[in-house]
Amino acid sequence: VQExxxxxxxWAPWLALHGxxxxxxxxxxxxxxxxxxNLEFTRKIRGDVAALQRAVCDQxxxxxxxxxxxxxxxxxxxxxxxxxxxSRSFQPEACFSQIRNGLSVxxxxxxxxxxxxxxxxxxxxxxxxxxxxxxxxxxxQMEDLGLATVTFPTExxxxxxxxxxxxxxxxxxxxxxANFQRFLETAYRALRHLAHL
Length: 197
Known about the structure:
- By secondary structure, the protein is mainly α.
- Helices cover 70% and strands 0% of the residues.
- It holds the Pfam family GCSF.
């Protein structure tokens, strides 16, 4: 029942988007090509984040989020905001700007994973590069569409948390990856919504 309720809550904001004034974008062939290419790209990044989550689970037995929620509050690791991607007054420029901000935050946070999982260095570096490339694809598309970049002053990329122990570093890395995965799922749904307008 919880999963069903969560599924409903996750999808509910998308129902409000159908009235959004995006018809002028939806018919643009270049825009559609951009969306489809970057949906695939986002799916690939999600797969790489999932591979790192499995590595953290296998190596440190940190697999279940519910068991670690108190530690998350203690460490102060938060989710990058993406509310503009599913607000009732959906604006592509605000959503794209938040996706770019979040990608920048997570790209920086991956340094903690690199330190924790040196054996996964090439995967972490690929992820950092992919996050940077996805961000530039979005920036380029915004420029092509004449969309202004929206800045969110309260969302300066947060400095990497300092972990007081190895265990905190492990749990912090677990949450960085879990939050990044959720962020990518929301970004993916926003791009898919635009592709189906």
